[in-house]
Specification:
Elements (H helix, E strand, L loop, with lengths): L3 E7 L6 H9 L6 E8 L5 H6 L6 E6 L5 H11 L4 E5 L3 E2 L4 H7 L7 E3 L2 E3 L5 H20 L12 E5 H7 L12 H11 L4 E3 L5 E3 L6 H22 L14 H11 L3 H14 L5 H21 L9
Parallel strand pairs: 1-2, 1-4, 2-3, 6-9, 7-10
Antiparallel strand pairs: 4-8, 5-10, 6-8
Helix pairs in contact: 5-11, 8-10, 8-11, 9-11, 10-11
């Protein structure tokens, strides 16, 4: 049995995988394996993995797209390591990535999280919103209360094999974008297993959401998935969807959300992405933030079922 298994769910990842697999080739740890679960090989991803046959990397290939939860569970079930690391295919881990994940499980059972450090393609969206949103998120994450760290469970996390056996796999009810990871963090928390955030595992993430439309669509999908989370774990388990404070900003988000369907959110986001090029940065930032927040609320309320297009 190896020290660590790295489970990599991948959908249309042929262009992303070389960066990740190259980073794994530079790891200081030597006792590890990586399992790339190709969720429908639509772009030659299997051939990319085969080019790294000099590494302890193998592929599981689904004949058709089955979704991220199915890919994750297949990878974890096939893993042979004592420490099980989830690593999304758009990460670029540092050389001590595996070593640090393994070291974090030397004591009592825990779930370990490393945050994303988003590497964003330069654009007007990135300048007015993306970069600041990333900084604010990481600042809030590091200051979050210990009993709230489970909310940060995402694509750079690890558990021991014993913990995985205790908690079980990712919930297959999450079939589109978002919250399958938060759900897993919540289950760790409910089982009394501490969830810790390790700053040394903060990892470069070459984010896909680099335009207003892509970010807004993800927000709507995430809102839908959050509603499912509350259906599974109880009303309000995810916390307030929108602050109850009746200040002007919250009222504006509420009013905007009431007018949005998925299609309207997407169309509006396309228009906003064009408009912000000519607006002062503070105004453009508020406009994007308004639409992102409102799309999340609209998705939660289920004003229109979004197509699985992410």
């Amino acid at each position: 049995m190896t020290s660590a298994s790295i489970i990599i769910p991948s959908y249309r990842g042929a262009k992303r995988l070389p960066r990740l697999l190259g980073a794994l080739a530079a790891q200081t740890a030597s006792d590890w394996e990586a399992i790339v679960v190709i969720d429908g090989d639509l772009d030659g991803s299997q051939q990319v993995v085969e080019r790294y046959s000099h590494l302890p990397v193998r592929a599981i290939v689904f004949p058709e797209n089955r979704g991220r939860v199915a890919a994750l569970n297949a990878g974890f079930e096939a893993a042979e390591g004592e420490v099980l690391i989830r690593c999304d295919d758009d990460l670029a881990p540092a050389p001590d990535y595996v070593e640090r994940h393994v070291a974090s499980h030397a004591g009592a059972p825990r779930g370990t999280i490393g945050l994303y450090r988003n590497v964003l393609v330069p654009s007007r969206y990135t300048t007015v919103y993306g970069e600041q949103a990333d900084t604010l998120f990481r600042t809030a994450a590091y200051s979050a209360a210990p009993d709230q760290k489970w909310r940060l469970w995402a694509g750079n996390v690890s558990v021991s094999r014993g913990t995985w056996n205790q908690i079980g796999g990712y919930n297959p009810r999450y079939r589109t974008y978002g919250w399958e990871d938060v759900d897993y963090g919540y289950r760790l928390h409910e089982a009394g297993i501490p969830v810790i955030l390790d700053p040394s595992l903060e990892t470069d993430h070459h984010a896909a959401a680099v335009t207003t439309p892509s970010r807004v669509r993800r927000a709507y999908h995430s809102g839908e998935a959050r509603r499912l989370f509350d259906q599974i774990h109880g009303s309000g388990a995810s916390g307030p969807v929108q602050p109850a404070d009746p200040k002007a900003w919250n009222r504006l988000v509420e009013k905007t959300a009431n007018r949005l369907t998925y299609r309207k959110a997407s169309a509006t986001a396309e228009a906003v992405d064009a408009v912000i090029r000519g607006l002062p940065t503070p105004v453009a930032r508020k406009l994007v933030a308004l639409l992102v927040e409102a799309a999340g609320v609209a998705g939660y309320r289920g004003t229109e079922e979004a197509p699985n297009d992410i």
